[in-house]
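As the next step, I selected for study one protein, both as residues and as discrete backbone shape codes, as given directly below:
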Amino acid sequence: MLHIRSLLLGAATAALLAGASYAKDDITVALQLEPPHLDPTSAAAGAIDSVLYSNVFEGLMRFMGDGSVVGGLAKSWDISDDGLVYTFILHDNVLFHDGTTMDAEDVQFSLNRARADDSVNAQKALFAGITDVSALDAATVVVTLAEPNGNFLFNLAWGDAVIVAPESIETIKQTPIGTGAFKFVNWVQGDKIELVRNEDYWGAAPALEKATFKFISDPTAAFAAVMAEDVDVFSGFPAPENLPQFEADPRFQVLVGSTEGETILSTNNKMPPFDNPLVRQALAHAIDRQAIVDGAMFGYGTPIGTHFAPHNPAYVDLKAGSAYDPEKAKALLAEAGFADGFETTLHLPPPSYARRGGEIIAAQLAEVGIKAEITNVEWAQWLETVFRGKNFGLTIVSHTEPMDINIYANPEYYFQYDNPKFQELMTTLNATTDPDARTALMGDAQKMISGDYVNGYLFQLAALSVAKAGVQGLWTNAPTQATDLTGVSWAD
């Protein structure tokens, strides 16, 4: 009997060890925001890229964790002397997850779809300079531009520029078919998205066999899930006040980095009274940025005075032009004809920076006579009402796209800033390749939108993540809104 019992104990131990070994091959990542659908090429929601960028979908180029841009599906490329013709050579033996071959015709389809007249790509402007996309052979794509664009390779690394197949485009929003290191297998809406390792991946195989993305919107529930070790990683942790507790717990690691997320009090420039520059200037002086960073983000975040990341070498510090000065704000309102203030709306999407920051901003605005009626909205409602419908006075959102000051050149963009001089400036910037000249132009662009008080510039969003101590390979910084798992593994 003793021998049999020993065998049983041995079997149980082996089973436990096998379970522990298996646990090292999968990961559960929590995010606060769930994607509205799963097509990164037809929505502005960064939550789509948070799950799918690099994991499921790939572009010709890709961002690395340090912000550099490297080849993705493009093995190499050549740029003509005049800067107008880009010739891309694709990697060999690349398959979509449904087993079909990815070739030059798929690249042609994807770029033409993104730039088409009826394109619903949220970053259609990235592709506006393309005049032709040709597939010379299965492995060679030639892209011709109307004029040189010093940002072109950078633009092709965006999630909006990933390569998709015509065969799967009809169902892409529910069943994403990409070329990445992980395959999509399941989406339980309101709960989770599951990915598995792509055994036919053309590149280096990821260490993880399975990845589950869990969606936990409530900051209190987020804290409980991490503390109970129900999740392995919480990317974009929404309760910064809890971070010191995790830092003091050896079970966890806290990653604090920077994002490309300019957090702004977006202002409807065509809706009275915000069509009056004096009112927008008053709004800017009514805001105490540091109080918002301290109160909403517990000190995590870098105050900004324009729509540009402070870690970018071309950043210009313009905070002084919109320093907190409520008396000046009142005087400007009186000069604009609103001595008694006015009422407006403040739409707040789910992230903590918006909901918590919005309460603080509403109180600050009230001190100068602006009564902002808060409306809490889910992302789908925000996209419909604010982003597409432009039916708002004020809103708070973090623009996480990399170096995206060009959005101010689009008068149809949701805050509806229409300045021909700025549009001309962006055209010149796109056509400029000299680094020093580009830096100077980017400085001019920052000064122009800051001086026009287009929006209330609040702070650069910090990248805050909590992970179990054994997880390695996570991005600390967020050069784009992504949770890239291709290099993530568990320590031995």
DSSP finds 13 helices and 19 strands in the chain. Residues 259-462 form a domain with the Dipeptide-binding Protein; domain 3 fold (CATH 3.10.105.10).
